[in-house]
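Late entry, written up from scratch paper. The run itself happened at the end of the previous shift, but nothing got recorded in the book at the time, so transcribing now.
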Amino acid sequence: MIKSILIIPAIVLASFVAADEVTDVSELTRRLQDGVPKILDKYNAPGVALAFVNGNRIIEFRSYGFADIATEAEITPSTMFNVGSISKLITAWGAMQLVAQGKVDLDAPINQYLKRWQVPNSKFNVKKVTLRNILSHTSGLSLGPYVGWDSREKLSSIVDSLNGDNNGAGLVELIHEPDTKWSYSGGGYSVVQLLIEDVSGMAFEDYIQQNVFEPLNMRDSTFNITKKVMNKSATPYDETGKVTGMVYFNEKAAAGLHTTPIDLARFNMAVLRDNEGHYNGVNILPEKLIELMIKPALNTNGRWSMSYVVDAENNSLGFAGFNRGWVSLSRSITDLNFGYVILNNSSIGAVNNEIDSLILSTVKQKHN
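Output as recorded:
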């Protein structure tokens, strides 16, 4: 398959970047231009979008392949992708605003804030389930990934999902003692979705729109995936290269974010620093809470913070998302004040892994 390549260098992204000097990524983009089409051909993958950030600037957007193979539509900076579990990062920032406002205590029993549903009693201590350990996946709550639904018409409510109406994922319940070990829990983030709604009095998607998307200028991001949104989206393909339908979630906080490469890059910058040395996310959270969010959490062997995957070897914070037809990755290399996102409209995770390795090896070589 002949792959299209759309390149929008930093000079064209004037509306996205600051006026000061842009990081030189010429060697990186040269290696990407040579390597990424080969990776797509290797796996017969449809396309991929990349966006790079430095400090408080988006410095480059590049895309390869197609948003839709049949029409050979290009992937643009405003093409929408589903990013699966990267939704959890967005959710964590929203939940921590309730902490900053004094409305939620990180270490108080989560049940005291929940009005429509409670973590069920268990042989383990339910009172030890808190926002802090839910965000770091050390709460002991059940459920890893969610399957989702093939139709919006099958969606009901987050309470129904917590009670087990979630296409087979099961009931959210306490399955081991809190604060004893790490255990990935999408179910925990469904509890956080309920927490945000019950404490704020707002629908989850409206709360995130007002408190995360708007402050970060994420104009093209949503948890409400309508036909209009899908018309702006890349076409999802399965691991065999066949077109696959969209997957819809009641569990929006865990898996439902739909966004663009540029918007996700804007979010990636939240843990990077501006020209004055402040986190770019300070218009959402105070610095002390950002520091708390990104440091390794207890009982995670140093690999997780409150939601971020901590890669000590590469001095980075990030996350990956996997839903049928979509694979995504976000990585912020904090010591270099540099980050990037990789969005892929297929179920082929190896594409993102190889591109991530290519970027990391090039960046490391440059700075060694």
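Strands lie at 5-8, 47-54, 57-65, 81-82, 258-259, 309-311, 316-323, 326-333, 338-344.
(Scratch paper discarded after transcription.)
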